[in-house]
Amino acid sequence: MMGFKEVETKDCPVEKLKTLQLDEANASGDEKEAEVNGTPGATKSKKKKKKKKKKKATMEATPEVDNHEDVPEVDNEASDEEAAAENEKEEGGEASSKKKKKKKKKKGPKTQTEPPTVPVSKIFLKNSYPLGEVCDYREDNLWRVTSEEKRHLERLNENIYTDLRRAAEVHRQVRQYAQKVIRPGMTMIELCETIENGTRALVEENGLAAGVGFPTGCSLNECAAHYTPNPGDTRKLSFGDVCKIDFGVHVNGRIIDSAFTLTFDQRYDPLLNAVRAATNAGIKEAGIDVRLCEVGAVVQEVMESYEVELDGKVYPIKPIKNLNGHSISPYHIHSGKTVPVTDNGDNTKMEEGEVFAIETFGTTGKGIIREDSDCSHYMRNTDGPASIFEKPRAEALLQSINTHFGTLPFCRRYLDRAGEKKHLFGLKQLVDADIVTPYPPLVDSRGSYTAQFEHTIILRPTRKEVLSRGTDY
């Protein structure tokens, strides 16, 4: 660079050319000499200078933080925008990863609320409901426990057992809540609706596929069964009442029928203890090939061993002879067989696969019940006429009954709920035509007290299962 400047000061163009050629020759000679000696030549030094210039230019364009020279504002804004964009990408990535994590979370079982509103299917997942109390049969049927054939039969019927256990779990959870909240001063309608609303929520009511099994019974004192309040009933529960709470749950027509007696005065405890013990004795006796009269004999013996003192008078506790347990079949609460509470001589045998409601009623009265008061319970008569075409109002009501209840029992409150507000006249016509059967309240002698306990059992091929058994009774 320096030699080239000196050549420019000369006046002669020829001399300038000679000088330029001489300089180029010297430069090439120097480079060759540097290559031979292994030291950097002029070309290498030029490259270094070029690199230094580039580095200096870069440093001036992007100075370090410690450099106090002015930095162009455009560069700062660009770098800030790039940084913000990177931060947004990072934040967006974190948010999307969080969303993905939330989606991956598996839903576990829920817990029950008060009042109960969570369906039991959301608590017990994969249709895995608790078993009831499982009991071996008597000695002559103990072989069933290890029989591979009987075990295979149970596996084939697993869907039936699942439906029954689901309904039984609904019954347990609803009644446990009811026992907490039912208190003197509550109207009978409030009492029933507390139970029925809980049942509908927990079983996930769905037409005839699942729902209430029959109207909630809340019979008081001498009334032993079949009382539920009609629309407009203002009666209230009092401290001195003996209240039989009997309600049902069904899944696919598989009905759980279970009942207990609720009191607030401890003086009734011997009456309740007698009936509870008699029911448990009947359950223990029941089994495949057992005669119905044998169950009744055991129930009677236990029941009559108790007495209760009320207002200074001792009353022997008697079984109500004409109020009994019964077999249950899909969509039929009473399906043919009667389980007596006395030794009535019925030699009919219980059979494998049957479902029974083992219920006993004890009383301080005569031990015989009769029909009384206004009717609230009704049920479609499967043996009666199929229709009543000549009476349009009754025919329309019948269609509603078939749609909402089928062959399950219902009450007037349920008709109201189904939208049949003006149903009395049509209902009477259906009763008169023997299409619907009324079931009035059943009462013992006035001033007496009655109690009830009941469980649903199934006679499985290997063992007996008390489906509705709970920690309460």
Notes on the protein architecture:
The protein is α+β, with helices and mostly antiparallel strands and 473 residues long. The chain is 41% helix and 18% strand. It has 13 helices and 18 strands. The protein has helices at residues 2-7, 13-37, 42-61, 73-104, 120-123, 148-156, 158-181, 188-203, 269-285, 292-303, 392-404, 412-417, 424-432, and strands at 133-135, 210-220, 223-225, 243-251, 254-262, 307-310, 313-316, 318-319, 325-328, 338-339, 355-363, 370-371, 377-380, 410-411, 436-439, 442-443, 450-459, 464-466. Strands 1, 8, 9, 10, 11, 17 and 18 form a seven-stranded antiparallel beta sheet that branches. Strand 4 and strand 5 (254-262) form a beta hairpin. Helix 11 packs across helix 13. It is globular, with a radius of gyration of 45 Å. The N and C termini lie far apart (112 Å). Residues 1-22 and 24-78 have low confidence and may be disordered.
| DSSP E strands, number | 18
The number of distinct helices, counting runs of at least 4 residues, comes to: 13
Share of helix, binned: 40-55%
**What percent strand?**
15-25%
Query: What can be said about the biggest beta sheet?
Result: 7 strands, antiparallel
Structural class: alpha+beta
Radius of gyration: 45 Å
pLDDT average, as an integer?
Answer: 85
Shape: globular
The CA-CA distance between the termini, in Å, is 112 Å
Low-confidence stretches: 1-22, 24-78
Keywords: Aminopeptidase, Hydrolase, Protease
Protein name: Methionine aminopeptidase 2
EC number: 3.4.11.18
Organism: Entomophthora muscae
